């Protein structure tokens, strides 16, 4: 009864092996034969006189043993030789020196061999599954895949693909407003595939700029066809993104083609990205013009490029500064990411107030990085800073409340000193 159970168990393993996806027949047959030969060699000493025929379509196999006929008293190795008397039982015409081929059943090898064979096959199945999963998704890095939410955890989502392979979407790779329930389908790109100790882990991302690029390729036919090229992308996931596009055919308006009539084409992408605002701009090799376009919708008066430092000083009228900076500094941050230049915004002052003081003169009292943050939002002088509400300075310059309060105290003190000195001349 034990043998029968083990044989059935082995057949189940064989069937499981046969049902493995993405394994070509040649590989499957080779691995199966190698496993059988290994176990047979351990059982009887050698596998060289065995022929193993794998039938992958049927899910079974045949084992044939070849032995040489010897005189009854000359039999030394029953695995390699067969006595003349035994050979005649198969066919009376066999003679000494001829080769006899007979078929063996799995149970002929004994329970221990069958158990060993099952364990070997099970190990090979697991190994091949892992190898195939790793190779399959290694080729998909940067591509969009869809998975069904199987488990929701605090730090990540566990998704299953169509073949029930596990995919991981970490919280850090999710758009801040993403919210998924079990059973929902999620689209993301394959960010990377880890393979520690032959244990593949597929990591997905919805925050990568590549995800936005792939969505554009899916939704905009001209990009998919190569008529329009995406030159650069910058994203603050779930908030805002800037995409620079270029058409090689002058007859094509790349921005119009991407946005579509009344924003129809880009609407699906915006919806997928949880209403992320997407600015599409025309790419140009002219650095100054590219930076101006990247800072849209703000209108720039003039720009000074410091090529060696990859820095740009942009001058605008006061009413344009808030547009250039954007809500929470998003516009200027994205423009810097898109162009690769550190952009500083300055208010254009027609008539400089002689009583005003440039912020750089306060570097002994105020940390340089704080001054740089203030200059980035267009505050190049003390009065520029004092003219802005405290809350706006905290938010747009991204400074701590106590830092802003200290800056305001230093600047106010400077002007109070001047007023006092005017009131009390020597």
TrEMBL record:
<dbReference type="InterPro" id="IPR015946">
    <property type="entry name" value="KH_dom-like_a/b"/>
</dbReference>
<dbReference type="InterPro" id="IPR013735">
    <property type="entry name" value="TF_NusA_N"/>
</dbReference>
<dbReference type="InterPro" id="IPR010213">
    <property type="entry name" value="TF_NusA"/>
</dbReference>
<dbReference type="InterPro" id="IPR012340">
    <property type="entry name" value="NA-bd_OB-fold"/>
</dbReference>
<dbReference type="InterPro" id="IPR003029">
    <property type="entry name" value="S1_domain"/>
</dbReference>
<comment type="function">
    <text>Participates in both transcription termination and antitermination.</text>
</comment>
<keyword id="KW-0694">RNA-binding</keyword>
<protein>
    <recommendedName>
        <fullName>Transcription termination/antitermination protein NusA</fullName>
    </recommendedName>
</protein>
<keyword id="KW-0805">Transcription regulation</keyword>
<dbReference type="InterPro" id="IPR025249">
    <property type="entry name" value="TF_NusA_KH_1st"/>
</dbReference>
<dbReference type="Pfam" id="PF08529">
    <property type="entry name" value="NusA_N"/>
</dbReference>
<keyword id="KW-0963">Cytoplasm</keyword>
<dbReference type="GO" id="GO:0005829">
    <property type="term" value="C:cytosol"/>
</dbReference>
<dbReference type="Pfam" id="PF13184">
    <property type="entry name" value="KH_NusA_1st"/>
</dbReference>
<dbReference type="InterPro" id="IPR036555">
    <property type="entry name" value="NusA_N_sf"/>
</dbReference>
<keyword id="KW-0806">Transcription termination</keyword>
<dbReference type="InterPro" id="IPR058582">
    <property type="entry name" value="KH_NusA_2nd"/>
</dbReference>
<keyword id="KW-0804">Transcription</keyword>
<dbReference type="GO" id="GO:0003723">
    <property type="term" value="F:RNA binding"/>
</dbReference>
<keyword id="KW-0889">Transcription antitermination</keyword>
<dbReference type="GO" id="GO:0006353">
    <property type="term" value="P:DNA-templated transcription termination"/>
</dbReference>
<dbReference type="GO" id="GO:0031564">
    <property type="term" value="P:transcription antitermination"/>
</dbReference>
<comment type="similarity">
    <text>Belongs to the NusA family.</text>
</comment>
<comment type="subunit">
    <text>Monomer. Binds directly to the core enzyme of the DNA-dependent RNA polymerase and to nascent RNA.</text>
</comment>
<dbReference type="InterPro" id="IPR009019">
    <property type="entry name" value="KH_sf_prok-type"/>
</dbReference>
<dbReference type="GO" id="GO:0003700">
    <property type="term" value="F:DNA-binding transcription factor activity"/>
</dbReference>
<dbReference type="InterPro" id="IPR030842">
    <property type="entry name" value="TF_NusA_bacterial"/>
</dbReference>
<feature type="domain" description="S1 motif">
    <location>
        <begin position="142"/>
        <end position="207"/>
    </location>
</feature>
<dbReference type="Pfam" id="PF26594">
    <property type="entry name" value="KH_NusA_2nd"/>
</dbReference>
